[in-house]
Amino acid sequence: xxxxxxxxxxxxxxxxxxxxxxxxxxxxxxxxxxxxxxxxxxxxxxxxxxxxxxxxxxxxxxxxxxxxxxxxxxxxxxxxxxxxxxxxxxxxxxxxxxxxxxxxxxxxxxxxxxxxxxxxxxxxxxxxxxxxx
Length: 133
Hints:
alpha+beta; Cysteine Rich Protein; two-stranded antiparallel ribbon; 2 helices; about 20% strand; flat
């Protein structure tokens, strides 16, 4: 039986959020930093059992880098709806720093455009080769 992590009432055929390994009624999931209610379509972060709303994640007292998960106390890059240390915002293929012109692959990882197209072409060639055998 699915019960709300806040009120412990049954959740049946109604919208719900999943966090901390449990379901929550919409408006019953609260940010652990500011106490605001996390809405149905709102993005939130969950790390080590702590839930924070998007605003607190980006601008709260302990913002964390999406790359290394360490705290950010210096200049940072905001991209892909996350914040990163400048040195952590790098291409997932060549591991070189990224600038504002990048693409996000189907796994949600940032890449240089050239690396993205090389990877896509490589996959196409391999898939074509395997299916022609």
